[in-house]
Write a structure and sequence with these properties.
The structure is a homodimer.
Chain A lengths: L3 H11 L6 H13 L5 H14 L1 E2 L6 E2 L5 H4 L7 E5 L2 H10 L5 E4 L17 H9 L5 E4 L5 H16 L4 E3 L15 H9 L6
Parallel strand pairs in A: 3-4, 3-5, 5-6
Antiparallel strand pairs in A: 1-2
Helix pairs in contact in A: 1-2
Chain lengths: 198, 198
Protein backbone atom coordinates (compact mmCIF):
# COMPACT_ATOMS: atom_id res chain seq x y z
CA UNK A 1 0.00 0.00 0.00
CA UNK A 2 1.14 3.49 -0.81
CA UNK A 3 0.53 6.75 0.96
CA UNK A 4 -2.68 8.62 0.18
CA UNK A 5 -3.25 9.88 -3.35
CA UNK A 6 -0.70 7.61 -5.04
CA UNK A 7 -2.77 4.63 -3.89
CA UNK A 8 -5.94 6.48 -4.93
CA UNK A 9 -4.52 6.94 -8.44
CA UNK A 10 -3.51 3.27 -8.60
CA UNK A 11 -7.02 2.26 -7.51
CA UNK A 12 -8.62 4.54 -10.07
CA UNK A 13 -6.50 3.14 -12.92
CA UNK A 14 -7.29 -0.35 -11.64
CA UNK A 15 -10.99 0.28 -12.29
CA UNK A 16 -10.36 0.63 -16.03
CA UNK A 17 -10.99 -2.46 -18.18
CA UNK A 18 -8.02 -4.77 -18.69
CA UNK A 19 -5.84 -3.04 -16.09
CA UNK A 20 -4.96 -5.19 -13.09
CA UNK A 21 -3.37 -3.96 -9.84
CA UNK A 22 0.19 -4.51 -11.14
CA UNK A 23 -0.41 -2.57 -14.36
CA UNK A 24 -2.20 0.18 -12.46
CA UNK A 25 0.85 0.51 -10.20
CA UNK A 26 3.22 0.59 -13.17
CA UNK A 27 1.14 3.30 -14.86
CA UNK A 28 0.92 5.42 -11.73
CA UNK A 29 4.69 5.26 -11.25
CA UNK A 30 5.28 6.05 -14.88
CA UNK A 31 3.18 9.18 -14.47
CA UNK A 32 5.00 10.09 -11.26
CA UNK A 33 8.47 9.55 -12.59
CA UNK A 34 8.32 10.54 -16.25
CA UNK A 35 8.56 14.29 -16.26
CA UNK A 36 7.77 14.52 -19.95
CA UNK A 37 4.52 12.60 -19.65
CA UNK A 38 1.91 15.29 -20.12
CA UNK A 39 -0.34 14.65 -17.17
CA UNK A 40 -2.29 17.88 -17.64
CA UNK A 41 -3.08 16.92 -21.22
CA UNK A 42 -4.47 13.54 -20.13
CA UNK A 43 -6.46 15.15 -17.32
CA UNK A 44 -7.91 17.76 -19.70
CA UNK A 45 -8.74 15.19 -22.37
CA UNK A 46 -10.60 13.03 -19.86
CA UNK A 47 -12.84 15.93 -18.87
CA UNK A 48 -13.18 17.20 -22.43
CA UNK A 49 -14.16 13.81 -23.85
CA UNK A 50 -16.90 13.40 -21.28
CA UNK A 51 -18.19 16.93 -21.94
CA UNK A 52 -17.93 17.13 -25.71
CA UNK A 53 -18.35 13.67 -27.13
CA UNK A 54 -21.90 12.57 -27.72
CA UNK A 55 -23.81 10.14 -29.89
CA UNK A 56 -24.81 11.03 -33.45
CA UNK A 57 -28.53 11.87 -33.44
CA UNK A 58 -29.00 9.89 -36.66
CA UNK A 59 -26.93 6.72 -36.31
CA UNK A 60 -25.71 6.63 -32.70
CA UNK A 61 -22.00 6.70 -33.60
CA UNK A 62 -19.75 8.90 -31.47
CA UNK A 63 -19.19 12.46 -32.58
CA UNK A 64 -18.38 15.93 -31.30
CA UNK A 65 -21.21 17.44 -33.36
CA UNK A 66 -24.93 16.70 -33.71
CA UNK A 67 -24.31 14.29 -36.57
CA UNK A 68 -21.23 12.13 -37.05
CA UNK A 69 -18.75 12.62 -39.90
CA UNK A 70 -20.17 9.63 -41.82
CA UNK A 71 -23.79 10.81 -41.64
CA UNK A 72 -22.64 14.29 -42.71
CA UNK A 73 -20.73 12.96 -45.74
CA UNK A 74 -22.92 13.35 -48.87
CA UNK A 75 -20.71 10.93 -50.83
CA UNK A 76 -21.81 7.98 -48.68
CA UNK A 77 -24.44 5.69 -50.20
CA UNK A 78 -27.67 6.70 -48.43
CA UNK A 79 -29.49 3.52 -49.50
CA UNK A 80 -27.33 1.11 -47.46
CA UNK A 81 -27.35 0.82 -43.67
CA UNK A 82 -24.92 -1.40 -41.83
CA UNK A 83 -26.15 -2.23 -38.30
CA UNK A 84 -23.42 -2.69 -35.67
CA UNK A 85 -23.32 -3.07 -31.90
CA UNK A 86 -20.75 -0.45 -30.90
CA UNK A 87 -18.97 2.63 -32.29
CA UNK A 88 -15.72 0.65 -32.38
CA UNK A 89 -17.33 -1.72 -34.88
CA UNK A 90 -17.80 1.27 -37.20
CA UNK A 91 -14.07 1.95 -37.02
CA UNK A 92 -13.25 -1.70 -37.73
CA UNK A 93 -15.49 -1.76 -40.82
CA UNK A 94 -14.25 1.64 -42.04
CA UNK A 95 -10.74 0.23 -41.95
CA UNK A 96 -11.68 -2.35 -44.61
CA UNK A 97 -12.64 0.50 -47.04
CA UNK A 98 -15.21 -1.90 -48.52
CA UNK A 99 -18.38 -0.27 -47.29
CA UNK A 100 -19.53 3.14 -48.53
CA UNK A 101 -23.00 3.26 -46.98
CA UNK A 102 -24.24 4.51 -43.61
CA UNK A 103 -24.22 2.88 -40.18
CA UNK A 104 -26.61 2.33 -37.35
CA UNK A 105 -25.10 1.75 -33.92
CA UNK A 106 -27.38 -0.23 -31.62
CA UNK A 107 -25.42 0.47 -28.45
CA UNK A 108 -25.05 -3.21 -27.57
CA UNK A 109 -26.67 -6.57 -28.27
CA UNK A 110 -29.59 -8.52 -26.83
CA UNK A 111 -28.30 -10.36 -23.76
CA UNK A 112 -30.84 -11.71 -21.27
CA UNK A 113 -28.02 -12.59 -18.84
CA UNK A 114 -26.95 -8.94 -18.65
CA UNK A 115 -30.56 -7.80 -18.61
CA UNK A 116 -30.29 -6.18 -22.05
CA UNK A 117 -33.44 -6.59 -24.15
CA UNK A 118 -34.48 -5.08 -27.51
CA UNK A 119 -35.86 -2.01 -25.67
CA UNK A 120 -32.36 -1.12 -24.45
CA UNK A 121 -31.02 -0.88 -28.00
CA UNK A 122 -31.42 1.90 -30.52
CA UNK A 123 -34.00 -0.06 -32.57
CA UNK A 124 -36.83 2.54 -32.75
CA UNK A 125 -34.38 5.03 -34.30
CA UNK A 126 -33.43 2.40 -36.90
CA UNK A 127 -37.09 1.76 -37.74
CA UNK A 128 -37.66 5.54 -38.13
CA UNK A 129 -34.75 5.76 -40.56
CA UNK A 130 -36.11 2.85 -42.59
CA UNK A 131 -39.57 4.47 -42.57
CA UNK A 132 -38.13 7.33 -44.61
CA UNK A 133 -38.02 4.84 -47.47
CA UNK A 134 -34.62 5.51 -49.05
CA UNK A 135 -32.92 2.34 -47.80
CA UNK A 136 -32.62 -0.65 -50.15
CA UNK A 137 -30.56 -2.98 -47.95
CA UNK A 138 -29.80 -3.41 -44.26
CA UNK A 139 -26.60 -5.34 -43.51
CA UNK A 140 -26.60 -6.92 -40.06
CA UNK A 141 -23.03 -6.75 -38.76
CA UNK A 142 -23.56 -7.63 -35.12
CA UNK A 143 -20.87 -9.84 -33.53
CA UNK A 144 -20.77 -13.51 -34.58
CA UNK A 145 -21.45 -14.67 -31.01
CA UNK A 146 -24.55 -15.69 -29.05
CA UNK A 147 -25.72 -12.15 -28.29
CA UNK A 148 -24.89 -10.80 -31.74
CA UNK A 149 -26.69 -13.68 -33.47
CA UNK A 150 -29.76 -13.26 -31.25
CA UNK A 151 -29.83 -9.55 -32.07
CA UNK A 152 -29.44 -10.24 -35.80
CA UNK A 153 -32.26 -12.83 -35.68
CA UNK A 154 -34.53 -10.40 -33.83
CA UNK A 155 -33.83 -7.57 -36.27
CA UNK A 156 -34.16 -9.72 -39.37
CA UNK A 157 -37.68 -10.77 -38.26
CA UNK A 158 -38.57 -7.13 -37.64
CA UNK A 159 -37.16 -5.93 -40.97
CA UNK A 160 -38.54 -8.65 -43.24
CA UNK A 161 -41.96 -7.86 -41.71
CA UNK A 162 -41.71 -4.31 -43.11
CA UNK A 163 -40.23 -5.67 -46.34
CA UNK A 164 -36.75 -4.22 -46.08
CA UNK A 165 -34.09 -6.45 -47.70
CA UNK A 166 -31.74 -7.76 -44.99
CA UNK A 167 -28.35 -9.44 -45.21
CA UNK A 168 -25.90 -10.78 -42.63
CA UNK A 169 -22.09 -10.73 -42.77
CA UNK A 170 -20.62 -14.09 -43.81
CA UNK A 171 -19.26 -16.40 -41.13
CA UNK A 172 -16.42 -18.74 -41.98
CA UNK A 173 -12.73 -19.42 -41.66
CA UNK A 174 -10.65 -16.36 -40.84
CA UNK A 175 -8.28 -15.44 -43.69
CA UNK A 176 -4.72 -16.42 -42.90
CA UNK A 177 -5.84 -18.97 -40.30
CA UNK A 178 -5.24 -22.70 -40.17
CA UNK A 179 -8.20 -24.99 -40.83
CA UNK A 180 -7.10 -27.43 -38.15
CA UNK A 181 -7.22 -24.72 -35.49
CA UNK A 182 -10.71 -23.50 -36.37
CA UNK A 183 -13.37 -24.29 -33.76
CA UNK A 184 -16.16 -26.63 -34.81
CA UNK A 185 -18.82 -23.93 -34.98
CA UNK A 186 -16.74 -21.75 -37.30
CA UNK A 187 -15.84 -24.76 -39.44
CA UNK A 188 -19.52 -25.75 -39.56
CA UNK A 189 -20.42 -22.23 -40.69
CA UNK A 190 -17.71 -22.35 -43.34
CA UNK A 191 -19.36 -25.49 -44.75
CA UNK A 192 -22.86 -24.01 -44.64
CA UNK A 193 -21.70 -20.85 -46.39
CA UNK A 194 -19.59 -22.58 -49.05
CA UNK A 195 -19.68 -21.06 -52.51
CA UNK A 196 -19.48 -22.63 -55.96
CA UNK A 197 -16.09 -22.09 -57.56
CA UNK A 198 -16.41 -20.58 -61.02
CA UNK B 1 -9.40 6.37 -36.71
CA UNK B 2 -11.88 8.30 -34.60
CA UNK B 3 -12.95 11.90 -34.71
CA UNK B 4 -10.83 14.47 -32.86
CA UNK B 5 -10.52 14.21 -29.11
CA UNK B 6 -11.61 10.58 -28.83
CA UNK B 7 -8.57 9.64 -30.91
CA UNK B 8 -6.46 12.07 -28.85
CA UNK B 9 -7.56 10.31 -25.66
CA UNK B 10 -6.81 6.89 -27.19
CA UNK B 11 -3.35 8.13 -28.23
CA UNK B 12 -2.67 9.55 -24.79
CA UNK B 13 -3.63 6.29 -23.05
CA UNK B 14 -1.51 4.43 -25.61
CA UNK B 15 1.55 6.31 -24.35
CA UNK B 16 1.24 4.70 -20.92
CA UNK B 17 3.42 1.65 -20.25
CA UNK B 18 1.86 -1.72 -21.09
CA UNK B 19 -1.12 -0.24 -22.92
CA UNK B 20 -1.27 -1.05 -26.63
CA UNK B 21 -3.57 0.60 -29.19
CA UNK B 22 -6.35 -1.97 -28.62
CA UNK B 23 -6.34 -1.55 -24.84
CA UNK B 24 -6.19 2.22 -25.20
CA UNK B 25 -9.28 2.09 -27.39
CA UNK B 26 -11.10 -0.18 -24.95
CA UNK B 27 -10.28 2.16 -22.06
CA UNK B 28 -11.37 5.27 -23.95
CA UNK B 29 -14.71 3.68 -24.84
CA UNK B 30 -15.18 2.48 -21.31
CA UNK B 31 -14.77 6.05 -20.12
CA UNK B 32 -17.13 7.33 -22.82
CA UNK B 33 -19.84 4.80 -22.22
CA UNK B 34 -19.76 4.10 -18.50
CA UNK B 35 -21.65 6.94 -16.91
CA UNK B 36 -20.67 5.90 -13.40
CA UNK B 37 -16.94 5.94 -14.15
CA UNK B 38 -15.77 9.00 -12.30
CA UNK B 39 -13.80 10.77 -14.98
CA UNK B 40 -13.45 13.98 -12.96
CA UNK B 41 -11.94 12.03 -10.07
CA UNK B 42 -9.32 10.46 -12.34
CA UNK B 43 -8.56 13.83 -13.97
CA UNK B 44 -8.17 15.48 -10.55
CA UNK B 45 -6.00 12.69 -9.18
CA UNK B 46 -3.67 12.92 -12.16
CA UNK B 47 -3.07 16.62 -11.58
CA UNK B 48 -2.94 16.26 -7.79
CA UNK B 49 -0.42 13.42 -7.87
CA UNK B 50 1.93 15.41 -10.07
CA UNK B 51 1.57 18.47 -7.82
CA UNK B 52 1.67 16.92 -4.37
CA UNK B 53 3.73 13.77 -4.55
CA UNK B 54 7.45 14.22 -4.15
CA UNK B 55 10.46 12.24 -3.05
CA UNK B 56 11.36 11.88 0.62
CA UNK B 57 14.31 14.18 1.33
CA UNK B 58 15.96 11.47 3.41
CA UNK B 59 15.47 8.20 1.55
CA UNK B 60 14.01 9.10 -1.85
CA UNK B 61 10.78 7.14 -1.36
CA UNK B 62 7.56 8.78 -2.56
CA UNK B 63 5.62 10.86 -0.07
CA UNK B 64 3.22 13.77 0.18
CA UNK B 65 5.33 15.35 2.94
CA UNK B 66 9.01 16.28 3.30
CA UNK B 67 9.84 12.90 4.77
CA UNK B 68 8.09 9.62 3.97
CA UNK B 69 6.00 7.70 6.48
CA UNK B 70 8.79 5.17 7.08
CA UNK B 71 11.48 7.79 7.77
CA UNK B 72 9.04 9.57 10.12
CA UNK B 73 8.28 6.40 12.09
CA UNK B 74 10.42 6.36 15.29
CA UNK B 75 9.74 2.63 15.80
CA UNK B 76 11.78 1.71 12.71
CA UNK B 77 15.30 0.42 13.34
CA UNK B 78 17.53 3.40 12.50
CA UNK B 79 20.67 1.23 12.26
CA UNK B 80 19.56 -0.77 9.19
CA UNK B 81 19.28 0.62 5.67
CA UNK B 82 17.88 -1.44 2.84
CA UNK B 83 18.93 -0.06 -0.56
CA UNK B 84 16.39 -0.53 -3.39
CA UNK B 85 16.03 0.73 -6.95
CA UNK B 86 12.48 2.08 -6.98
CA UNK B 87 9.71 3.15 -4.59
CA UNK B 88 7.69 0.10 -5.67
CA UNK B 89 10.45 -2.12 -4.26
CA UNK B 90 9.83 -0.52 -0.86
CA UNK B 91 6.19 -1.57 -1.10
CA UNK B 92 7.14 -5.11 -2.10
CA UNK B 93 9.50 -5.47 0.88
CA UNK B 94 7.06 -3.87 3.31
CA UNK B 95 4.53 -6.50 2.28
CA UNK B 96 6.80 -9.23 3.69
CA UNK B 97 6.67 -7.58 7.16
CA UNK B 98 10.19 -8.97 7.72
CA UNK B 99 12.17 -5.76 7.61
CA UNK B 100 11.83 -3.07 10.29
CA UNK B 101 14.71 -0.79 9.29
CA UNK B 102 14.86 2.18 6.91
CA UNK B 103 15.17 2.33 3.13
CA UNK B 104 17.23 4.15 0.57
CA UNK B 105 15.73 4.48 -2.90
CA UNK B 106 18.39 4.90 -5.61
CA UNK B 107 15.97 5.90 -8.34
CA UNK B 108 17.17 3.20 -10.75
CA UNK B 109 20.14 0.96 -11.41
CA UNK B 110 23.43 1.33 -13.26
CA UNK B 111 22.74 0.59 -16.93
CA UNK B 112 25.32 1.69 -19.51
CA UNK B 113 22.90 0.76 -22.35
CA UNK B 114 20.33 3.24 -21.05
CA UNK B 115 23.06 5.77 -20.25
CA UNK B 116 22.50 5.49 -16.50
CA UNK B 117 25.72 5.71 -14.48
CA UNK B 118 26.33 5.94 -10.71
CA UNK B 119 26.02 9.73 -10.93
CA UNK B 120 22.39 9.41 -11.97
CA UNK B 121 21.49 7.52 -8.81
CA UNK B 122 20.93 8.83 -5.30
CA UNK B 123 24.31 7.55 -4.07
CA UNK B 124 25.72 10.79 -2.53
CA UNK B 125 22.62 11.02 -0.29
CA UNK B 126 23.23 7.42 0.83
CA UNK B 127 26.86 8.19 1.67
CA UNK B 128 25.76 11.24 3.66
CA UNK B 129 23.33 9.10 5.67
CA UNK B 130 26.09 6.56 6.37
CA UNK B 131 28.44 9.37 7.38
CA UNK B 132 26.13 10.14 10.29
CA UNK B 133 27.46 6.93 11.82
CA UNK B 134 24.33 5.26 13.20
CA UNK B 135 24.04 2.54 10.55
CA UNK B 136 25.36 -0.95 11.35
CA UNK B 137 24.28 -2.77 8.19
CA UNK B 138 23.38 -1.89 4.62
CA UNK B 139 21.28 -4.52 2.81
CA UNK B 140 21.57 -4.31 -0.96
CA UNK B 141 18.17 -5.22 -2.38
CA UNK B 142 18.61 -4.14 -5.99
CA UNK B 143 17.00 -6.42 -8.62
CA UNK B 144 18.65 -9.82 -9.25
CA UNK B 145 19.35 -8.91 -12.90
CA UNK B 146 22.34 -7.52 -14.80
CA UNK B 147 21.75 -3.87 -13.86
CA UNK B 148 20.83 -4.62 -10.26
CA UNK B 149 23.88 -6.85 -9.78
CA UNK B 150 26.17 -4.20 -11.30
CA UNK B 151 24.71 -1.60 -8.97
CA UNK B 152 25.09 -3.88 -5.94
CA UNK B 153 28.72 -4.64 -6.89
CA UNK B 154 29.46 -0.92 -7.30
CA UNK B 155 27.87 -0.02 -3.97
CA UNK B 156 29.48 -2.88 -2.07
CA UNK B 157 32.95 -1.70 -3.19
CA UNK B 158 32.08 1.84 -2.10
CA UNK B 159 30.67 0.77 1.26
CA UNK B 160 33.34 -1.73 2.27
CA UNK B 161 35.89 1.03 1.56
CA UNK B 162 34.27 3.14 4.29
CA UNK B 163 33.92 0.03 6.46
CA UNK B 164 30.15 -0.23 6.56
CA UNK B 165 28.92 -3.86 6.81
CA UNK B 166 27.09 -4.78 3.60
CA UNK B 167 24.82 -7.71 2.75
CA UNK B 168 22.93 -8.77 -0.36
CA UNK B 169 19.53 -10.48 -0.58
CA UNK B 170 19.83 -14.23 -1.22
CA UNK B 171 19.32 -15.53 -4.75
CA UNK B 172 17.89 -19.00 -5.25
CA UNK B 173 14.84 -21.03 -6.16
CA UNK B 174 11.56 -19.17 -5.76
CA UNK B 175 9.38 -20.66 -3.04
CA UNK B 176 6.50 -22.67 -4.51
CA UNK B 177 8.29 -23.08 -7.83
CA UNK B 178 9.34 -26.25 -9.62
CA UNK B 179 13.06 -27.06 -9.71
CA UNK B 180 12.82 -28.34 -13.28
CA UNK B 181 11.47 -25.00 -14.48
CA UNK B 182 14.18 -22.89 -12.84
CA UNK B 183 16.59 -21.27 -15.31
CA UNK B 184 20.20 -22.34 -15.09
CA UNK B 185 21.48 -19.10 -13.54
CA UNK B 186 18.94 -19.29 -10.72
CA UNK B 187 19.68 -22.96 -10.17
CA UNK B 188 23.42 -22.20 -10.14
CA UNK B 189 22.83 -19.49 -7.54
CA UNK B 190 20.75 -21.88 -5.45
CA UNK B 191 23.77 -24.26 -5.38
CA UNK B 192 26.23 -21.50 -4.53
CA UNK B 193 24.03 -20.26 -1.71
CA UNK B 194 23.17 -23.68 -0.25
CA UNK B 195 22.98 -23.91 3.51
CA UNK B 196 23.87 -26.72 5.90
CA UNK B 197 20.78 -28.47 7.27
CA UNK B 198 20.85 -28.55 11.06
Amino acid sequence: MYDGIVQDLIDEFGRLPGIGPKSAQRIAFHILQTQNFDVTRLAELLTEVREKVRFCEVCGNITEQERCSICRDPRRDQTLICVVEEPKDVVAIERTRQFRGLYHVLGGAISPIDGIGPDDLSIPALMRRLGEGEVTEVILATDPNLEGEATAAYLSRLLTAIEVPVSRLASGLPVGGDLEFADEVTLGRAFEGRRAVE
